[in-house]
Automatic annotation (TrEMBL):
Cellular component per GO, a single term: plasma membrane
InterPro entries, per database record: DUF350
Protein name per Swiss-Prot or TrEMBL: DUF350 domain-containing protein
Compartment(s): Cell membrane
Organism listed in the record: hydrothermal vent metagenome
Length: 295
């Protein structure tokens, strides 16, 4: 038996879909504007796959944010509903752009992702796309976590965004330190700049797995609108613990699934994309399991 759908419900769905389409469509032009390039030329004339991968990551990230924005009970007023969804959509896009800048200037401070993407470096495109999707996952969970339902809910979302950037920075630095130890002082960012796609895929898996694990923290911590500070401290503490647990558990799973294979040599030296996809899938799978169990 189908639920009865009134004209009001149809209007709400129509408004949300229109805003969603506009927001997703804007990603291509916004990324082109920030990169200072013509998106049509990059995608069709120059066949810049790296730029296309980056845009795809941004579109998916915005979709995740909009998914959270339109979920839950709709407003009793159509104008208020449109305004609420539009504000969250704009805020989400803004967070993604800030995250892209942080990723380029701080997290990958020795590698200009923007420049490398313009140079058709697919590794850079994968890294940038993975970062945006990871942020989309985290922002999505933050929007579902906060229970205010109004514009004031952007405050905890912004705080989760800041906290997640810190954690993603730490994870990236740890990955860099591990790579440096394995390769006698060589830099992870330098290897990515040379176009090692397998290395980029593995990194993407680690980041996405971390993002999914972080989103599980929202299921373990109750959001208290009257005590945002303690809510955020608790969220950050739980997020750190989950992030710490993710790596050893994923490593054990990797050792079982890829037993008998020299993973470091295959990915880092031989640039074996197949092995890289498997390792990335393992980290993402463990992230989903954390989210399912705890979130």
């Amino acid at each position: 038996m189908l639920n009865t759908i009134s004209l009001w419900h149809i209007s709400i769905i129509g408004i949300d879909l229109i805003i969603a389409i506009i927001a997703i469509s804007s990603i291509r032009h916004l990324q082109g504007l920030l990169a200072g390039v013509n998106t049509t030329d990059e995608l069709s004339k120059k066949d810049n796959f790296a730029f296309g991968i980056s845009i795809a990551g941004g579109a998916l990230a915005v979709s995740l944010i909009l998914f959270a924005a339109v979920s839950g009970d709709a407003s009793v007023n159509l104008l208020h509903e449109a305004g609420n969804v539009a504000v969250y959509a704009l805020a989400g896009i803004l967070f993604l752009k800030i995250g892209t800048i942080i990723n380029d200037a701080i997290i990958f401070n020795k590698l200009s992702l923007k420049t490398k993407i313009a140079e058709k470096n697919i590794s850079a495109g994968i890294v940038q796309a993975a970062n945006m999707v990871a942020l989309g996952v985290i922002i999505h969970s933050a929007m579902n976590w906060e229970s205010t339902g109004g514009y004031q809910g952007l405050i905890p979302v912004a705080l989760v965004f800041i906290a997640s950037q810190i954690i993603l920075l730490i994870v990236t630095r740890l990955r860099g330190a591990i790579y440096q130890k394995r390769h006698e002082g060589k830099q992870l960012q330098e290897a990515l700049s040379t176009g090692n796609v397998a290395l980029a895929i593995r990194y993407a898996g680690h980041i996405l797995g971390t993002a999914l694990a972080l989103s599980a923290a929202s299921g373990m911590v109750v959001f208290l609108p009257q005590d945002i500070t303690n809510s955020m401290i608790s969220w950050f503490a739980v997020a750190i613990v989950i992030t710490i647990l993710l790596s050893p558990i994923a490593t054990i799973a990797r050792m079982v699934v890829l037993s008998g294979i020299n993973i470091v040599d295959e990915i880092d030296n031989q640039q074996n994309v197949g092995v890289a996809y498997i390792e990335a899938a393992i980290y993402i799978a463990i992230g989903f399991i954390f989210k399912g169990l705890l979130g």
